[in-house]
Amino acid sequence: MSVDKLCEKIIERQNPSVVGLDPVLSYIPQAIKDEMRAAHQNPFEAAAQSLLAFNQAIIDEIADVVPAVKPQIAFYEMYGWQGVRAYHETVEYAKKRGLYVIGDIKRGDIGSTAEAYAIGHMGRPDLFGEARAAFDTDAVTVNPYLGSDGILPFARLCKGKKMIFVLAKTSNQSSGEYQDQVTTSGETIYQLAASNMERLGESHMGACGYSDVGIVVGATYPAMLGELRERVPHTFFLVPGYGAQGGGGADAAPAFDSRGLGAIVNSSRGIICAWQKGGSDGRDFAKAAREAAIRMREDLLGVLGGKIG
To answer: Which residues form the active site (predicted)?
Structure first.
């Protein structure tokens, strides 16, 4: 099962964190941008190559520290088809370096469209009689708020080889405008979403005690993290909100079980922009990312009792 693969990597690295690869040009050292602008006349191509070079250098430095990376596709789409190619090449490079890759795509739509998204990001489209993966990520994020039409096409493609993380209680400040509203059953919308994913995951269980149907719950809401950990004991959590959004290890701690498993915590800007915090010119950006990733690992290990598994 894909969730077992993720748990194994977390135990191997003794690190339940994932690095969000969400680059924009302002995050990238000037030397990289100057080099790519000189080499490529098309500014979209230069931007995409800057993103890719930045990502690859960071991946090289953190591949032995973290179990996973999470590229957010919007940060690549904004640079056109060249940026989407950089997303694809980032995924491929991370997998070659042995990392578990979560494609943060947050797709959700009606049945036929959701199926097309699912095949594109999790499956293998038919290419004139030959099936090949377009974006070969290990897991993707899914928006459930169009109902089961938008979730089931993704869940059907898990098949033990892929995983989904369905939005439940997201880390942003305005999430409560909808997710905290109480339904006719007396549950909040985020509780209902989490409970439904626990049930959906019953047919996707791994040996680690979790299913290939996970949920997204923000570290910015630690009380809700703890409440959901009790409500959905077999559902793996993707936990954003660490670092730049204000969450820390203690905030994320309620997401974990007694083994230190059950969750993976994301930090994006806190790691990939670490070089900007000390007034650096950017020559050491990848090493700064590595140091930030190690600090995050130690923070999380500290609240988990020093050992995972």
So the answer is: 106
Residue type, 124: R
User: Which phi and psi angles does 91 have, rounded to 5°?
Assistant: -60, -50
Are 73 and 81 in contact, with CB atoms under 8 Å apart? no
This prediction has a pTM of: 0.95
Q: Which of 15, 9, 24 is nearest to 86 (CA)?
A: 24
Is residue 185 included in any domain, yes or no?
yes
Say how many domains are in the chain. Answer: 1
Spell out the per-residue pLDDT of the chain, length 309, in tens: 999 999 999 999 999 999 999 999 999 999 999 999 999 999 999 999 999 999 999 999 999 999 999 999 999 999 999 999 999 999 999 999 999 999 999 998 988 999 999 999 999 999 999 999 999 999 999 999 999 999 999 999 998 899 999 999 988 889 888 988 998 889 999 999 999 999 999 999 999 999 999 999 998 888 989 999 999 999 999 999 886 666 788 899 999 999 999 999 999 999 999 999 877 778 899 999 999 999 999 999 999 988 898
Does 25 reside within a domain?
yes
Residue 109 lies in a domain: yes
Catalytic residue among 33, 95, 106, 162: 106
